[in-house]
Amino acid sequence: MKVEITVNGEKKIADVSPETTLLKMLRDEFDLTGAKLGCDVGDCGTCTVVVDGESVNSCLMLAARASGSEVLTIEGLATFQKLHPVQQKFEDLGALQCGYCGPGMIMSAKNLLDKNKSPSVDEIRDALAGNLCRCTGYTKMIEAIQEAAKEINTTNAL
Amino acid sequence: MRPLDYIAPKDAKEAVDLLLENSDSSCPLAGGTDLIVDLKHNPGNITMLVDVSCIEEFRGIKEIEEGLKIGSMVTFGEIMSSELCQKYIPAVIEGAHTVGAVQTRNLGTVGGNLVTCVPSADSAPSLMVLESIVTIIGTDGYKSMPIEDFFIGPRKTILKSHELLVNILIPKKNLSKPSKFLKHGLRKGQALALVNAAASMYLNKSDIISEPKIALGAVAPTPLRALKAEAFLEGKKYSEEVINEAAEIAVSEAKPIDDFRSSAKYRCDIIRTFTKRVLIQSADQAKQKN
Ligand SMILES: Cc1cc2nc3c(=O)[nH]c(=O)nc-3n(C[C@@H](O)[C@@H](O)[C@H](O)COP(=O)(O)OP(=O)(O)OC[C@H]3O[C@@H](n4cnc5c(N)ncnc54)[C@H](O)[C@@H]3O)c2cc1C
Ligand code: FES
Ligand code: FES
Hints:
A: globular, B: 4-stranded antiparallel beta sheet, 12 helices, 14 strands, binds flavin-adenine dinucleotide, binds FE2/S2 (inorganic) cluster
């Protein structure tokens, strides 16, 4: 079946079988391999992308259901000149180790900051509850998200 | 996943007809957070998905003459950010907030949660203590019933395979009723309930309890109303002893099992503690309102 979606601002069309998940379509049809396949059942969050402004597990969403939507993936955050503040702070603070959880973690963090300009530690933990990391202890990620929030707020205030 | 057909009918009637015509091989799809997981691991006979998530009649949260109507395809995320829910049914938001994590709550719907009908469903207890009415649609048209009658057993509701859950109504008399939901899992996020509990009640100026309701999850084959504990509380003057006694009765009404998540004995301890807590916190709200 034909699926038309906007990914990172670009209109795309794919012809996929109906059981194709959004994750599979992003990776196999559009070569957007940022979002990862981890558990495939909604537990780990490494497949997190933002659909029409809400973060979702792309392993549980059929591509067909995303038809007509605007999808944002990790590839849509940075430009060649500049990382997104969340990415930059993750790098500055060494918030990732192997990095497998990173794309999902950063999309969850970005989506949180879009909705909540200065989240508390508890609010950040709640927003990351669906993103598992097997390497770090989450502490530096939480710090990085708070730093990114500060940076975004000062840039916006300028 | 094995090959599947996907159809998104435009309205409820078309969906019912499709499900009826393909009754051996089709099922409704909502957010997919239960169904897609099942189809990946245990597909059974299903070869056709009938996507009911965009059917207009199943969407939206509306204040109507009879109360607050929540479409079956409203997601947990939508419930949490709804001003109507915040104003009238905060205990339902508390339940919604404990489901999985953000990404799952943005896909998963309250209707899908009720239809999956596991004893630990986190949307059930709050809706039960607010005496919600569910409406279903089938070949004979619409039918409404108290939410307790919708649950038949573990993973079994009253729905026939072509019937659909349309909406859930919280009756007007229970909007803004003092109420509380709590869940005990092994950790805060992404954990199913070992026990969940909700209560609602009114207190008059002399602290006399009226219309107390208690619902418990993961303690019996379906979410359970603790009717004996409720009957005990009705008309009593609120006190610590009365609440303790009610919690003891609630424990005796539950039939928890031993499983890999917890022993039955531990569940009984949690039922006692959580019944007390939801009753006390409902009463605190009731006092504030007086
Ligand atoms: C990682 C993860 C964590 C979770 N954590 C929790 C938790 O903490 N607490 C909890 O309670 N649940 C939890 N769940 C399960 C919860 O997400 C689901 O129960 C969800 O609410 C089901 O809704 P859905 O829209 O995804 O339904 P689907 O998966 O699309 O459908 C579920 C079932 O309902 C049927 N159905 C759907 N809509 C209708 C309708 N309108 N009429 C008739 N039948 C219908 C489908 O055919 C299917 O059988 C979790 C799930 C995941 C993946
Ligand atoms: S791969 Fe989607 S949540 Fe793990
Ligand atoms: S950095 Fe390795 S899983 Fe998170």
